From TrEMBL:
Residues passing through the membrane, by range: 79-97, 103-124, 136-158, 384-404, 437-460, 466-495, 507-528, 548-568
Biased composition (Pro residues): 22-37
Region (Disordered): 1-64
Topology class, membrane: Multi-pass membrane protein
Keywords: Coiled coil, Membrane, Transmembrane, Transmembrane helix
Subcellular location: Membrane
Any GO CC annotation of this UniProt entry: membrane
Coiled-coil regions listed: 234-261
Ranges of compositional bias, category Basic and acidic residues: 9-21
Xref: Pfam families: AI-2E_transport
Keyword flag Transmembrane: yes
Protein name (record): Putative inner membrane protein
Length: 594
């Protein structure tokens, strides 16, 4: 038999909320103090409106938001401290600018070189085991060898060639070259000296008449002193009858000679006949007047207006002479225009064929203008050489330290700058992009154009090839002008002066197809679709940069324009963000809840 176990009944646990029995019974609550109801009722009856009076005497409550704002305002001492700190920063910053302004060019060039050669520095840095200083030294030596030393050598050779070319320049050689050029262009003027002499005689003949201002003075209202002055000058020009007659004879002989010697249109013969007839009429009017010298005709100061009008009437014959002189001079100029091929062409021929004396005067004037500058340059050669040497040393040292500590410098500037870090990174990105666009695209393109042009100049036998290479490289940096501003004049020199038309044509084709076209290929390859400046802004930035910063302005000007464009884009981005925040749905919801 199995023993049957009794099943245990589960015992319900005691609920936790059941209070334990208190063995000590609670004491009786204390009795309330006795109150006097009649006294209390009397007090309430005496002051029935105490609460409204107290509420009226208490000041109104200040909102907590206003209190928080007032507590957040800085104290006056704090404000003064910040103001003094800002003034100190401005003063020290001005002194810092004056100290560092003299080294702007080497520092800027060093920054450009570091940006361009930083990939080379990174490659060397990884190859030599991540040693920064060794990689910086190697990169600096590479920059010095590939960039700075060739520039110094090219400048020295170009200066030497320019000095030699100026010293070998002769006045007769220049005049001969100009004669050849004028013949090729078609503005050569045979018997140029006689044409210039006839032009001078024509001016002298036309100057024998009174001008409009002097005629206006010969009226009844003119003061007597001015009247006498006009008549005196009138007498000095017209009273020398022999001189005027000699000038008329010389002008007539020149017209006859030039009409026979110079080939011209058929109509020039009739114009020459008219001019000679006008000179004959002018000569016939040279008969002396019956009134005698003008000094005898001048009225006394005591005489009145009637005597003055009588003298004016007596000058009618002289006025007729001067009117005929104007007509004769106009006839001579009309004949010269017809003979020389028209009004514009005649003026060009007269201007393009100056006399030897005028040309020498022009050279002397140019030398007098340029000589003081060359004298100051030669006298300050030592100081210029010292400045260049100091600038080169600063450039090399700056390149080294920018390569070593450039990243740390940028982080420090970003930490101290109040500008947002994203904007600072964008400015740095634009500096890197613009540096590569300006230097790698523009400078590299200009260098290759200069090399190609130098090869062409050397092949065609030009002297001073290094000077022409330097000029082509520099002009290639200027938009709209480019290398064509050098090889086009060289082409004209070969054709017009040297009479080498085959070589001139070859140089023109080479310049159009090779030299000037390589610019587009290099810029497209280097920029790789990145945005660049508009051609108008590029030209103005280069010209303005050269005017403000000197030769370095070719690089600085475009970068200033790009930085301004970047800052304006940042400002536009900020304004757009504010507009988006102001028009967002959350802001509208807050306004409706309010």
């Amino acid at each position: 038999m199995t023993k049957r176990r009794a099943r245990k009944r589960p015992v319900d646990p005691k609920p936790a909320s059941e209070p334990k029995p208190d063995l000590n019974p609670p004491a009786d609550p204390p009795a309330d103090p006795p109150t006097d109801p009649p006294a209390d009722s009397e007090q309430k009856a005496k002051v029935p409106d105490a609460a409204p009076i107290a509420n009226a005497a208490r000041p109104p409550d200040i909102p907590s938001s206003v209190t928080d704002r007032l507590n957040r305002l800085p104290s006056l001492s704090r404000i003064l401290s910040v103001v003094m700190l800002l003034l100190g920063i401005v003063a020290v910053g001005a002194l810092f600018y004056r100290v560092m302004a003299g080294f702007f060019v080497p520092l800027f060039l060093s920054a450009l070189l570091v940006v361009i050669f930083h990939p080379v520095y990174d490659w060397i840095y990884t190859r030599i085991g991540n040693r920064r200083r060794t990689a910086a030294v190697a990169t600096t030596f590479l920059i010095l060898t590939l960039v700075l030393m060739p520039i110094i050598v090219v400048l020295s050779v170009a200066t030497s060639q320019f000095t030699s070319m100026v010293s070998q320049m002769n006045f007769r050689d220049i005049e001969t070259a100009l004669d050849r050029a004028r013949e090729q262009v078609g503005i050569s003027l045979p018997h140029a000296e006689k044409f210039r002499r006839l032009d001078q005689l024509t001016d002298a003949i036309s100057a024998s008449s009174l001008n409009d201002e002097q005629r206006a003075k010969l009226d009844s209202d003119t003061p007597l002193s001015e009247f006498i002055q006009v008549l005196s000058s009138f007498e000095q020009r017209s009273d020398n009858r022999e001189l005027v007659e000699a000038e008329l004879n010389e002008a007539e002989n020149l017209i006859v000679f030039l009409q026979q010697e110079v080939d011209g249109p058929v109509t020039a013969n009739a114009a020459a006949t008219v001019a000679i007839d006008r000179l004959e009429e002018l000569r016939r009017s040279l008969a002396p007047t019956k009134h005698g010298p003008l000094d005898l005709l001048l009225p006394e100061p005591s005489e009145g207006v009637e005597e003055q009008e009588e003298v004016v009437d007596q000058l009618t014959a002289d006025e007729q002479f001067h009117q005929k002189s104007v007509i004769a001079s106009a006839a001579i100029r009309s004949w010269m225009k017809i003979l020389l091929g028209g009004s514009f062409r005649s003026q060009v021929k007269l201007v393009a064929n100056p006399s030897a004396e005028d040309f020498k005067k022009l050279l002397v004037r140019a030398r007098e203008t340029l000589q003081p500058r060359f004298v100051s340059l030669t006298s300050a050669t030592g100081s210029y050489f010292l400045q260049i040497l100091i600038g080169m040393v600063v450039l090399v040292i700056s390149v080294y330290f920018f390569l070593v500590d450039g990243a740390a410098m940028i982080r420090t500037l970003m930490r101290l700058s109040p500008l947002d870090d994203n904007y600072e990174r964008r400015l740095l990105l634009e500096f890197d992009r613009t540096s590569r666009a300006v230097v790698l695209a523009s400078a590299l393109s200009a260098l290759i154009q200069g090399i190609l042009a130098g090869i062409g100049f050397w092949t065609l036998g030009f002297e001073s090839v290094v000077l022409l290479f330097l000029a082509t490289t520099l002009m290639a940096l200027v938009p709209f002008l480019g290398a064509a501003s050098v090889w086009v004049p060289a082409t004209l020199w070969l054709g017009l002066v040297e009479q080498q038309w085959m070589e001139a044509g070859a140089l023109a084709i080479y310049g159009v197809v090779i030299i000037s076209s390589i610019d587009n290929v290099i810029k497209v390859y280097v920029l790789q679709g990145r945005s660049q400046l508009h051609p108008l802004f590029a030209l103005l930035s280069v010209l303005g940069g050269v005017k403000v910063f000197g030769p370095i302005g070719i690089l600085v000007g475009p970068m200033v324009v790009v930085f301004l464009q970047t800052l304006l884009e940042i400002l536009n981005h900020e304004l757009e963000q504010r507009e988006e925040v102001g028009t967002s749905p959350a802001s509208h919801g807050l306004e409706t809840d309010r």
